[in-house]
Amino acid sequence: MKTKVFIDGSEGTTGLRIHERFSKRDDIEILAISPELRKDPEERRRLINASDITFLCLPDAAAIEAVEMCDNPDTVILDTSTAHRTSEGWAYGFPELSKEHREAVKTGKRIAVPGCYASGFIGLAYPLVKGDILPKDYPLSIFAVSGYSGGGKKLIAQYEEEGRDAKFDSARMYAWGQTHKHLKEMKIITGLDKEPLFCPMTTNYHSGMIVQIPLYTDMLKQKKTPEEIRDYIAEYYKGEKFIKVMPFGADVEAGGALYSDACAGWDGMEIFVTGNEDRVIVASRFDNLGKGASGAAMQCMNIVLGCDEATGLNL
Q1: Most buried one in 92, 209, 232, 285, CB count within 10 A?
Q2: SS3 of 85, please?
Q3: Dihedral pair phi/psi, residue 35, rounded to 5°
Q4: Is the overall model pTM greater than 0.90, yes or no?
Q5: Any idea what DSSP says for residue 79?
Q6: What does the DSSP 8-state code read for residue 217?
Q7: pLDDT of residue 154
């Protein structure tokens, strides 16, 4: 019997990518909504409650409204918006973080899919906090770069418009006010005492991202060499098919530079550790539309269904 899936917000960037991935599967029945009824609340309500799994690919307010429409106790909601990532009763959809996270996804009816920048940061910081290496009061900063697809349909259109403004040829640095929507989950999911300083940018390519955290080793709870930190993270994620901790020195082997679009189209996450005995950089590289969005949502769905986590994904 096929699993009935409804994608609420199927015309957005994440919704379209999820829909594309289902084209390779024969175990899913898509409950399609007529284009003219995409914003009709009663038709959305009907399809949400008729589904086994509903993906919400909507702005926050619309996602909250959609959850309120669901009165079928068997319907699983996978929300890709920011609305419920730190809400009580919602599983946080990063199963590699711990056995508890994976079990919460497996058994939950309400699952919040992480943000792209947040995934890159939390994938690095969470193991270090849990291993009593990174103090919860460490004054963390994040430098990150993403393809323009992370900005949604409006920003994509601006970058891809014929005769576009020449300013889009250069790096676009933003979120100067330190109010980026991913900061809340970055702090709460990792258990940090304060939100990190966050300096993101988008540049002139479609997808892929790198998230970096610089660290002073003498400010860690346990002073470790870069090699020791790399080995600890590798052991933490041992056996996880979506997380690939790269050998120490992989950045040198790559010519001393890492390219942020190298994982475009791939659904996993690479982790790098580099630096020296005084200063270390831990970094994650992945596709902001893959492990940072639709790929993560599909992985969570696979866990709910009890099938191989990588089904329909590119690893």
Answers
A1: 209
A2: coil
A3: -50, -40
A4: yes
A5: E
A6: G
A7: 86
